[in-house]
Specification:
Blueprint (H helix, E strand, L loop, with lengths): L2 H20 L2 H17 L10 H22 L7 H5 L6 H15 L3 H12 L4 H8 L3 H19 L11 H12 L1 H8 L1
Helix pairs in contact: 1-2, 1-3, 2-3, 6-7, 6-8, 7-8, 9-10
Amino acid sequence: MSFCDDIVEIIPSLRAFAISLCGSRDKADDLVQETLTKAWAKQDSFQQDTHFRAWMFTILRNQYYSQHRKSRREVADNDGALSERLAVHPEQQGFVDLAEMSEALKLLSDEQREALVLVTAEGLSYEEAAEICGCAVGTVKSRVNRARTRLIELLDVSTASDYGPDSHVASIVANDIFGSNARRATCR
């Protein structure tokens, strides 16, 4: 018996198993079709000494559970209402902030920049940074503190809200996402 004959013979059994898993004939038919497609593509990996029926049922079962896991992460949006409310902050300001930060970092002394990057960007402890820089822990702490203070001066930063979208952009995005009530709350 050929591989093709074996597949044709097992289709009714696969369909019955798929209906028991899916609970819907339409979904079961799609599942069987995907199973057959995968089996056909992987026929080289089927070992003649093994049980063909078990191999096919395993493919179907794995396909079903893969689809099930995927569907749990999906959100139905048939009328497009959810996608219409999606909004993101414009990226331009982030690029400007990054460029300004890069330029300001260049104005720091080499020692301050090195200490700041090791502790903040690389996430090293002060002790690890001190070992790398070949100096005392207190020296690294001082360099980081002076670097932060200098960056605040150079970037004219007074609060954390100075970075990111301004209040006008934030209110527009909030309005797009949550409606006009959220806009009034952010503009106050």
